[in-house]
Design brief:
Blueprint (H helix, E strand, L loop, with lengths): L1 H71 L5 H8 E2 L3 E2 L5 E7 L5 E4 L7 H4 L8 H5 L1 H4 L6 H9 L4 E2 L2 E4 L3 H11 L4 E6 L6 E7 L11 H5 L9 H4 L9 H11 L8 E3 L2 E4 L2 E4 L7 E3 L1 H7 L2 H10 L2 H10 L25 H8 L9 H12 L3 E3 L4 E5 L5 E4 L4 E4 L3 H16 L13 E9 L7 E9 L7 E6 L9 H13 L1
Parallel strand pairs: 1-5, 2-6
Antiparallel strand pairs: 2-3, 3-4, 6-14, 7-8, 7-19, 9-12, 10-11, 13-16, 14-15, 17-18, 18-19
Helix pairs in contact: 7-17, 10-12, 10-13, 11-16, 12-14
């Protein structure tokens, strides 16, 4: 009996020993399964946390950087809701002159008024039949009120509108008037800015329109053969003529380190592959350095220079100066174009070198290039708004100068400045010499008809050469050069600034 119990005990013990690995295996399987489940839960958790962080980050980014653009869209109905609660703010020039304001009649009817009429039409714009100019790009701020919050609450309770913020621009009414008067009834454009800051002080495009009567004249304006709504300063595409010789000069300097040794004997014409190029009025300039060629705007010299250039590297220089690129501009603008095939013939090369090829440019772009030369090679970002204030004048936001890019080295800028001084002291721009201020510049006459009798007259330059004050870029379309030139327009602008 005892023996049987011992055997049963041994059998049970043996079975327990045999079952132990199985149990351990089962427990190990459960633990492994549990670990896999935990890992999956952790992965899913991380995924959702990551998605949450991304969404939160985008919301922050959207509110900081993009929300105003979305609200400012003409397709966003929120603008209409803002206009129902806020009286549109004023637009002012840098001296506090009112450029645009909302007048409310006794019956509550609101009318947007432009005290200067057509003077600022393209840059300030309009706010009916859509929006344009500063009225468009600052629409959100004009319909936002940063008045004292207690005042806003009281107005809300009394069902009265709050007054929107004011936009204080960089524009100067005196310079704008001078530029407009100088252009007169001629088609064309003028841009004035500060090289050291990028502030746009004036921007005129002719023909213009009266923003006070846009609504009633809309059909006439949109069908106007003269394209009065078109901002020629930023959107105009013109043959640059001799102002482009500054670009060709820089390309030659970069490809020829010994450019200071350049000499050209101008006889008044040059012939290559059956194509003859003449200097203006067939003038024979004689022996010229590179600086002399710029000052005299010598066509034969630049035709020769063009034939020396590596076209690919020339294209690189043009693109360094922002050709074929979108330009940073608060207003709608068009990119300038420089195109010259590597297998181009002599005629096309020579014409391109002196600004008469397929190259097209806006007055705004030429102002940027000139600004970089004046500012030691560094281009500041152009801007139109100086600050935003509430309707009582308290500053809500200030805009500060910032660098756009570097177009050239300081040494290159210095050499080009010296050459442009020669234009004024003894070259084609001597009408600006001997004033109460100094000027460095470049003149241009672009032939735009087969008979060569129709020309666009150009000027680009800056004043107070040693410590530049303002940059001026002008084009006069189909100019009667006996009575008006780009240089004569620029002179009136400089005179207005210094007076």
């Amino acid at each position: 009996m005892a023996e049987e119990r011992r055997r049963a005990k041994d059998i049970k013990k043996s079975q327990k020993i045999e079952d132990e690995p199985v149990k351990r295996k089962k427990n190990k399987g459960r633990k492994k399964s549990k670990r896999l489940t935990n890992k999956e839960i952790t992965r899913v958790t991380y995924m959702f946390v990551t998605l949450f962080i991304i969404m939160a980050g985008y919301l922050v980014y959207f509110n900081v950087f993009e929300s105003k653009d979305v609200v400012n869209s003409v397709y966003n109905v929120r603008q209409d809701l803002l206009a129902e609660r806020v009286v549109r703010g004023k637009i002012l020039d840098r001296n506090g002159n009112v450029l645009a304001q909302t007048v409310t009649a006794e019956d509550g009817t609101e009318t947007r008024e432009y005290p200067y009429g057509s003077l600022f039409s393209h840059v300030v714009g309009y706010s009916v039949k859509g929006k344009a100019g500063i009225e468009s790009i600052q629409n959100f701020n004009l319909l936002t009120s940063n008045a004292f919050f207690v005042e806003k609450l009281i107005n809300e309770f009394q069902d009265q509108k709050n007054i929107g913020d004011n936009i204080v621009t960089t524009l100067d009414a005196n310079l704008q008037t001078a530029a407009s008067n100088a252009l007169g009834d001629n088609k064309g454009a003028a841009v004035v800015l500060e090289a050291s800051t990028g502030k746009i002080l004036a921007m005129v495009s002719k023909p213009s329109y009266n923003p006070n009567t846009v609504a009633e004249n809309w059909e006439t304006l949109i069908n106007d053969s003269d394209s009065a709504l078109y901002n020629r300063a930023t959107q105009g595409q013109y043959t640059p003529g001799s102002v482009f010789k500054i670009v060709t000069t820089l390309a030659y300097m970069r490809q020829n380190p010994d450019y200071v040794a350049y000499l050209h004997d101008c006889s008044g014409e040059i012939t290559e592959e059956g194509t003859t190029i003449h200097c203006y009025n067939n003038t024979a300039h004689g022996q010229e350095t590179l600086g002399d060629a710029v000052a005299n705007s010598c066509n034969t010299a630049f035709s020769e220079i063009g034939l020396y250039l590596d076209i690919g590297k020339w294209q690189d220089t043009a693109e360094d100066l922002l050709f074929n690129k979108e330009l940073k501009c608060d207003l709608t603008s068009k990119r300038s174009s420089f195109s010259l095939e590597k297998d181009a013939g002599a005629a096309e090369i020579m014409m391109t070198a002196m600004g008469q090829g397929e190259t097209m440019v806006s007055p705004y772009h030429m102002a940027l290039i000139t600004s970089a030369i004046a500012n030691g090679g560094t281009l500041m970002k152009p801007y139109l708004v100086d600050e935003i204030t509430n309707y009582k004048g308290t500053i809500v936001k200030e805009y500060m100068p910032e660098k756009y890019t570097t177009l050239m080295t300081s040494e290159e800028a210095s050499i080009l400045k010296d050459y442009m001084e020669g234009v004024i002291s003894y070259g084609t721009g001597t009408s600006l010499n001997g004033q109460g201020y100094t000027v460095a510049g470049k003149t241009g006459t672009a032939e735009v008809s087969m008979d060569k009798n129709t020309v666009h007259s150009w000027f680009m330059g800056f004043s107070n050469v040693d410590n530049p004050d303002i940059v001026v870029s002008v084009v006069v379309e189909n100019a009667d050069t006996s009575s008006i030139t780009g240089t004569s327009v620029a002179k009136q602008i400089f005179n207005a600034y210094y007076n």
